[in-house]
Design brief:
six-stranded antiparallel barrel; 25% strand; alpha+beta; 281 residues; single chain; six-stranded antiparallel β-barrel; 3 helices; Thrombin, subunit H
Length: 281
């Protein structure tokens, strides 16, 4: 049987062992030198310092990475804590703003109620807030939070500090429905301020979405002009006289035309008000 010894393989193994031994020896020497750096013998300590310098570098690098990691972790915790404080402060500011807005709204409501009472001081009034608005294409009504227990009855006029709003059309013990002058079923007898002539102001199905009313039955020989104010005439039993209703913003057709009419903007922006008064006397 032929046998052939592989000397190259043996040389490689011996080479690897030698390299390993050398590396380990160097490491051992460096570690020994590391511990002799502060020896009382200056020569020993100097040689040890030079030999152990790579370990010093590695040690300092590890310590630097450790410190940096700890600092980053500390900074992250600090940032998280600051964010929590800022978020809490932001929430507190939001609450303060909401409280301030609530107080401002309440003050505005009280101010408006005082204005209404001042404008209609010769009438007996009951104040109410709008709690529901009807949203359909046909009617223009809303519900208020006062009713029969407060003296409210059907056909009583409803007003705002700036003028007429409408009339009571339905009543329960604690609520009432207001049909506004924008409703298509509404008709108000009015006087034209500049000429003191009567006409009829009607709600209109097509005009209500534009916040407009239609002035009809204008006397043939009456001169009307843009910005003429309209006031309740007092004719009939529903509305007292001299309550502002609106102003003329457009005139259609000419004087002496039997079909002429005018478009009127209500004195009250009915779509935006939140409180009203019912005249109950």
């Amino acid at each position: 049987m032929d046998y052939k010894f592989d000397f190259s393989n043996k040389r490689e193994k011996n080479k690897s062992k030698i390299i390993f031994i050398v590396i380990m020896s160097v490491i051992v020497i460096m570690f020994v030198a590391f511990f002799f750096r502060k020896n009382n013998n200056k020569v020993v300590s100097s040689v040890a310092s030079v030999v152990s310098k790579p370990i010093d570098m590695i040690y300092n690098m590890v310590i630097g990475i450790k410190d940096k990691t700890e600092n980053n972790a500390s900074n992250i915790d600090e940032i998280i804590e600051k964010n929590k404080l800022l978020e809490e402060e932001n929430n507190n500011l939001k609450m303060e703003i909401l409280e301030s807005q609530k107080i401002l709204d309440e003050n505005n409501i009280l101010k408006e109620m005082l204005n209404i009472k001042k404008e209609y001081q010769h009438f007996e009034l009951v104040m109410g807030n709008i709690i529901y608005r009807e949203h359909d294409n046909w009617t223009q009504t809303f519900t208020i939070n006062i009713g029969a227990k407060d003296g409210v009855k059907v056909d009583q006029p409803v007003v705002h500090s700036k003028g007429l709003v409408g009339h009571i059309s339905e009543v329960t013990d604690n609520t009432a429905v207001v049909t506004t002058i924008l409703d298509a079923s509404s008709a108000v007898s009015v006087n034209i301020s500049t000429v003191n002539e009567p006409a009829v102001l009607n709600g209109d199905l097509e005009l209500k979405s534009k916040n407009r009313l239609k002035l009809t039955y204008i006397p043939l020989d009456t001169e009307i002009a843009l910005s003429d104010m309209l006031y309740t005439s007092g004719i009939g039993v529903m509305y007292p006289s001299s309550i502002p209703v609106g102003r003329v913003v457009e005139i259609v057709n000419n004087k002496n035309d039997v079909n002429r009419y005018a478009l009127v903007e209500p004195s009250v922006d009915i779509r935006k008000i939140t409180e009203v008064a019912v005249i109950i006397n």
